[in-house]
């Protein structure tokens, strides 16, 4: 017990220091958590000046905390998912989100094909490069003050569309990668997943009144336990049935999104999410073998360059669809460049599938982790830096946009 | 005046208030209660953050802006220089019983307990009038006394 407690203590201190460093550098904490996970984890670097750096193993507790991190992240995504907003502005959101998906997912597919990946691996790669990081993008919008500008609309609209799409995507992919394989098997798995999740979505939609009353608790402590309890239970049940626990948590979140409990959840449950999400990014770092990075170097380099450009273009088009000026349209593109938590969740899904169902991805799993980590590290930092130096970029590129 | 409201996922709510000439005030209310207030001078300009307030500060500022703000003060701290006394003004009209009387004759002090500390007569003010100062129609008597005493002055003047 002593050794385990010490290990978690080291992990928490490492995360705290990494977060502090990231704040000092005005960068997102996500890459910092991953890097510190790589540093203190079992993979190289393993020592520094003769001192062992194998301080924290990828043990059961970290795995479970990371899993809870995924559940909490998706629960909050569902909580903050506004059906009303989506419907109220559906035409512009669908147009902006559609361009964003077609271009970026399409580019991801092209990269996968160009590098000779199997269809399944290609779809996974495309998912990783498609989805922007809600966490980093929103934080950057606030820090730059763009949140109060017109460009916030297409950015947030695109994120809402991506949220919905990633729920469908994760449900689909989780069913396929954890299934027994084969086309018929996959079809059955997908149908089962959509039946379960569709049922959950319908229950979540109609349960609003019940949730409103059942969670009307005086004590914050009981409230926290109730919310975490129901979310984890449903997510766990889904996973036990071979269905994406992340998407299940997303729909549980949507059940709360129409109630008056949202503010309280943001207040009481958000710290728990922050803790477990930190463990999720840390766990990704622990599992990352940086010696595999050179093997995916060319894939990584191409993906970084091409998908930065494609997000910039799709975002700019989205901005134009919202009748924004060239400068603001470019900002929309820049704001959406950071990738983060969802790319890593897709990679984690692949890793988790190994050994459960078909082993079609057994060889791909280490590659996808290395790729996703390398990609997210670059894109989260590059995206943040691009947003910080947006004026230089928009001054250069704005004259190129006419019409 | 139009106010736009929008949800900002993961942040809270955004309100935009139109001011004159395309200028807008933008208020972001974070889930933790923090309020950021921005001003956008015109539709093409960038919003600049004016200030950021905690939930409590924001509510206080709100009530000041609303004109409803008051600072409650504990009664022990209230210092009235006159003790319980207050000052009142009384107009003396033609029909008043005291017209033509001196202050001493009018019996205001004996009858009610208030002291006449000044008489306003047209543009002129007679401070600290003598007891034999005569009261004329159209005068305003400035009287110092307790609230209870003041309530009886009106009757004495009418006679």
Describe the protein in words:
Chain A is globular and about 65 Å long. In chain A, 76% of the residues lie in helices and 1% in strands. Chain A has helices spanning 2-24, 29-40, 60-79, 83-88, 90-114, 119-130, 134-144, 152-178, 183-206, 208-214, 220-240, 245-257, 262-268, 270-287, 297-321, 326-335, 341-353, 364-388, 390-397, and strands spanning 47-48, 51-52. In chain A, β1 (47-48) and β2 form a beta hairpin. Helices cover 21% and strands 35% of the residues of chain B. Chain B has four helices and nine strands, in the order βββββαβααβββα. Chain B has helices at residues 55-66, 103-106, 108-112, 147-158; strands at 3-8, 12-18, 24-30, 35-40, 48-53, 86-91, 115-121, 124-127, 140-145. In chain B, the strands form two sheets. Chain B has a five-stranded antiparallel β-sheet with strand order 1-2-3-4-5. The two termini of chain B are 58 Å apart. The relative contact order of chain B is 0.13. The model of chain B has no long low-confidence stretch (mean pLDDT 84). At the A-B interface, α7, α8 and α13 of A face β1, β2 and β4 of B.
Can you summarize this structure?
The complex is a heterodimer of chains A (403) and B (159). By secondary structure, chain A is mostly helical.
Q: Which labels suit this protein?
A:
heterodimer, A: 403 residues, mainly alpha, 19 helices, 2 strands, 1% strand, globular, B: 159 residues, alpha+beta, five-stranded antiparallel beta sheet, four-stranded antiparallel beta sheet, 4 helices, 9 strands, 35% strand, rod-shaped
């Amino acid at each position: 017990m002593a050794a385990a407690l010490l290990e978690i203590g080291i992990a928490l201190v490492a995360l705290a220091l990494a977060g502090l460093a990231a704040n000092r550098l005005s960068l997102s904490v996500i890459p910092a958590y991953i890097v510190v996970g790589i540093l203190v984890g079992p993979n190289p670097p393993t020592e520094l000046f003769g001192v062992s750096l194998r301080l924290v193993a990828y043990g059961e507790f970290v795995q479970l905390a990371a899993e809870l991190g995924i559940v909490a992240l998706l629960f909050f995504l569902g909580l903050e998912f506004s059906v009303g907003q989506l419907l109220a502005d559906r035409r512009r959101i669908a147009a902006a989100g559609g361009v964003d998906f077609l271009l970026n997912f399409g580019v991801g597919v092209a990269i996968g094909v160009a590098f000779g990946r199997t269809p399944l691996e290609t779809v996974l790669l495309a998912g990783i490069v498609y989805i922007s990081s809600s966490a980093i993008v929103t934080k950057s919008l606030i820090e730059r003050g763009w949140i109060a500008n017109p460009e916030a609309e297409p950015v947030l609209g695109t994120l809402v569309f991506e949220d919905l799409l990633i729920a469908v995507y994760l449900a689909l992919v989780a069913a396929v990668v954890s299934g027994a394989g084969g086309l018929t098997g996959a079809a059955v798995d997908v149908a089962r997943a959509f039946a379960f999740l569709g049922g959950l979505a319908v229950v979540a939609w109609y349960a609003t009144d019940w949730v409103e009353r059942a969670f009307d608790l005086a004590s914050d402590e009981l409230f926290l336990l109730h919310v975490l309890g129901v979310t984890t239970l449903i997510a766990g049940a889904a996973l036990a049935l071979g269905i994406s626990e992340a998407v299940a948590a997303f729909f549980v979140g949507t059940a709360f999104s129409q109630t008056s409990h949202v503010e309280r959840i943001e207040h009481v449950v958000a710290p728990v999410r922050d803790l477990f999400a930190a463990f999720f990014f840390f766990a990704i770092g622990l599992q990352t073998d940086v010696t595999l990075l050179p093997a995916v170097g060319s894939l990584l380099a191409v993906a970084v360059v091409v998908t930065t450009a494609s997000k910039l273009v799709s975002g700019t088009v989205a901005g134009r669809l919202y009748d924004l000026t060239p400068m603001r349209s470019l900002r929309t593109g820049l704001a959406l460049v950071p990738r983060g938590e969802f790319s890593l969740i897709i990679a984690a899904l692949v890793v988790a599938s190994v050994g459960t169902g078909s082993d079609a991805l057994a060889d791909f799993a280490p590659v996808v982790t290395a790729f996703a980590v390398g990609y997210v590290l670059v894109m989260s930092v590059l995206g943040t830096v691009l947003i910080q130096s947006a004026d230089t970029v928009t001054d250069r590129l704005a004259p190129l946009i006419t019409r | 005046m139009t106010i736009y409201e929008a949800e900002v996922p993961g942040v809270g709510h955004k309100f935009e208030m139109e001011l004159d000439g395309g200028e807008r005030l933008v208020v972001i209310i974070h889930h933790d209660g923090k309020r950021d207030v921005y001003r956008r001078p015109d539709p093409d300009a960038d919003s600049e953050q004016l200030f950021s307030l905690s939930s409590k500060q924001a509510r206080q500022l709100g009530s000041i802006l609303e004109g409803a703000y008051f600072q409650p003060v504990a009664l022990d701290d209230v210092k009235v220089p006159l003790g319980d006394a207050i000052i009142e003004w009384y107009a003396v009209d033609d029909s008043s019983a005291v017209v033509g009387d001196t202050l001493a004759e009018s019996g205001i002090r004996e009858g009610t307990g208030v002291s006449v500390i000044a008489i306003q007569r047209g543009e002129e003010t007679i401070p600290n009038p003598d007891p034999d100062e005569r009261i004329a129609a159209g005068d305003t008597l400035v009287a110092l006394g307790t609230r209870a005493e003041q309530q009886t002055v009106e009757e004495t003047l009418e006679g």
